[in-house]
Design goal:
Radius of gyration: 31 Å
Helix content: 55-70%
Strand order of the largest sheet: 2-1-3-4
Strand content: 5-15%
Number of strands: 4
Number of domains: 2
Order of helices and strands: HHEHEHEHEHHHHHHHHH
Largest sheet: 4 strands, mixed
Structural class: mainly alpha
Length: 396
């Protein structure tokens, strides 16, 4: 194809592009869906992070202590800024848990006697394992009881002239060498999958309307009788659909970065690693994927039996990739570098690295993007052949 024919094709395609973009961006329902979902998950992520930190650092666990007279120092040693200990003479543990206590610690009546006789008396800790706050309170109580128990053991050994070191031949110290970016990767692991899901959701309504919708309205048949190559029709529709998905994902990325300063990242051992350059790079990374998602949605909608059938199929189609990415993250599978050539997986790895500030290979990023572009071209050619089939309008 020489330069003259290329310019001729582009000139023929411009009115079609204008028509497709106008129809896509005039659809208020599609725009509302794209914008709403693009802003929804960044806000939910920021709000969830704030709630998690508040629960971990500010919420005080309530503990009911029954029988404190048998162990006078127990209430004093348990009391801390994160534990509110309330002494009770008696009470039913189940009833106290229903009254709002996170834990109920019961000291039996023979505790003092058995303690003085060195007979290891028991303590009974009642908890509701279905309550997340109770699990946190249980951990705090066990930590303080373990420290108190070790103190008593050391005092007893010292009273008998035995060095406590004899029972501890070595000391284990944990030293965390993870960086804030590494810890941030655990919390932000779901963000790339949600950004990719935004592409599917933001472009779904437009892709169905421009394919199955136009077929039912018979406007697609009118378009195909025009002297235009079929690949131009598919390309114009793909670009219009991809524009909504791509800009929706960019809006989600921008909202997430703007909300990061208001998120308590420091309390979680994290720091904001995403810069303006990172946002631009994420947008460029998502562009080939937006084109691929758009053309696949159009092809899937064209092969559907009706408009409603297309909506159902595309709704299932957008969940499958997210489930795949979640399974890969949950299994913590170490993927080879060559996996970055695959669409979805490559974009997920690059977005994760850009979000938390880890190294991302430009060579693999470029190679993976080129593979995605090749798949886009192949899908466009396949769609062009599908438009020439006589059975395309048989279901309409």
């Amino acid at each position: 194809m020489n330069y003259t024919s290329l310019m001729t094709n582009l000139g023929q395609m411009l009115p079609l592009l204008k028509k497709e973009f106008l129809e896509a961006w005039r659809d208020r329902r599609a725009l509302l869906t794209a914008v709403s979902f693009s802003l929804l998950f960044p806000v939910m992520l920021a709000g969830g992070t704030v709630m998690v930190v508040k629960k971990q650092t500010e919420q005080t666990a309530r503990v009911a202590l029954i029988g404190a007279a048998e162990a006078p120092l127990l209430a004093e040693k348990l009391d801390s800024p994160l534990l509110e200990v309330e002494q009770r003479v008696e009470g039913e543990p189940t009833a106290l848990l229903e009254q709002g206590f996170d834990l109920v610690l019961v000291v039996p009546e023979d505790f003092a006697r058995r303690y003085q006789d060195f007979r290891a008396p028991r303590l009974y800790l009642y908890t509701d394992s279905s309550d997340t706050g109770a699990r946190r309170a249980e951990r705090l109580v066990q930590e303080r009881l373990a420290a108190m128990q070790q103190l008593v053991v050391n005092q007893r050994l010292a009273a008998r002239g035995v060095a406590p070191q004899l029972l501890a031949p070595w000391q284990l110290e944990m030293r965390d060498v993870s960086t804030p970016s590494m810890r941030g990767a655990l919390i932000l692991a779901t963000v790339p999958g949600l950004l990719i899901l935004t592409l599917f959701v933001a472009s779904l309504a437009t892709s169905v309307d421009t394919s199955a919708g136009e077929r039912e309205r018979l406007s697609l048949e009118t378009l195909l009788v025009q002297p235009l190559p079929a690949w131009q029709v598919i390309t114009a529709k793909m670009l219009a659909v991809a524009s909504l998905g791509w800009l929706g994902s960019l809006l989600a990325v921008t909202a997430l970065v703007l909300l990061m300063p208001f998120m308590p990242l420091a309390e979680l051992g994290m720091q904001q690693a995403t810069t303006l350059g990172g946002v631009i790079t994420m947008g460029l990374v998502l562009l080939p994927l937006a084109l691929l998602v758009a053309v696949l949605q159009i092809l899937l909608a064209l092969r559907s039996q009706s408009f409603k059938d297309a909506q159902t199929q595309l709704s299932i189609f957008q969940i499958a990739p997210l489930a795949l990415l979640i399974m890969i993250d949950a299994a913590q599978i170490e993927l080879a570098d060559s996996w970055q050539l695959l669409p979805l997986i490559g974009q997920q790895q690059w977005l994760k690295g850009l979000l938390v500030g880890t190294a991302v290979s430009p060579a693999w990023m470029l190679a993976g993007s080129l593979v995605t572009f090749v798949l886009v071209v192949a899908a466009v050619m396949f769609g062009a052949r599908a438009l020439r089939r006589e059975t395309l309008f048989s279901a309409a």
